[in-house]
Description:
Layout: H1 2-24, H2 29-45, H3 63-69, H4 75-87, H5 99-114, E1 116-117, H6 130-133, E2 138-139, H7 141-154, E3 159-164, E4 167-175, H8 177-191, H9 193-196, E5 203-205, E6 211-214, E7 233-236
Parallel strand pairs: 1-2
Antiparallel strand pairs: 3-4, 3-7, 4-6, 5-6
Helix pairs in contact: 2-8, 4-5, 4-7, 5-7
InterPro entries: Papain-like_cys_pep_sf (IPR038765), Transglutaminase-like (IPR002931)
Keywords: Membrane, Transmembrane, Transmembrane helix
Transmembrane segments: 6-29
Amino acid sequence: xxxxxxxxxxxxxxxxxxxxxSVIGNYGFSEISEDYNSMIYTMSDxxxxxxxxVAKLLPFPNKSKIINAIEYQNPKVRNFAIMATTKHxxxxxxxxxxxxxxxxxxxFKEINSRWNYVNDPKEGDYIATASESLExxxxxxxxxxxxxxxxxxxxxxxxxxxxxxxxIYPEIxxxxxxxxxxxxxxxxxxxxxxxxxxKKLHYHIDERGQVWMNLDYTATYPGGPFMYEEILGALTLx
Length: 238
């Protein structure tokens, strides 16, 4: 009897707190609903994400050339990234903790909507710099990855490149699993609603428990399907 009374009182106090939070604009009913939806989306979309296991059997191809080509401090790259943030998602409000992620997703949207895949010369790999790729938004997978990584890093994001068999693609650091819940909700319900409808998010979890999301040129939304599952190496740009 006493336990039931205590439970009822606790529930009543909790509802009063939520009501008060809603009135003054702090944590209230809408926020708890959003957090619940975020958790449900994450659980239903990818309950068993692929753990990233980097097999250090092969060196990262063209590592030094790629690092030099990621010109994140080049004014052209920086200005392009800023342009993308003013063109996409500028009016999104209420997610200040994820502003950088949202802006990086704007960069992803701009690059992937314009990218034209073109093969390298038959003689071998051609590594285009990020500023060079801005001329025509064309090239192969490593050129796309270089531009994406440079533009993301130019506005405060943390990118890395993943090497698979015959392919390189970019990923962005999302954060913890808690951050993933919020980002999952943003992608599904705010930023890429049509593109991600009924689809799963694809990401990796590294050895420190950090979540990295796919930004490949084949994806129409952040976290789109991987082209290849096998991972041969990773190049992180801190």
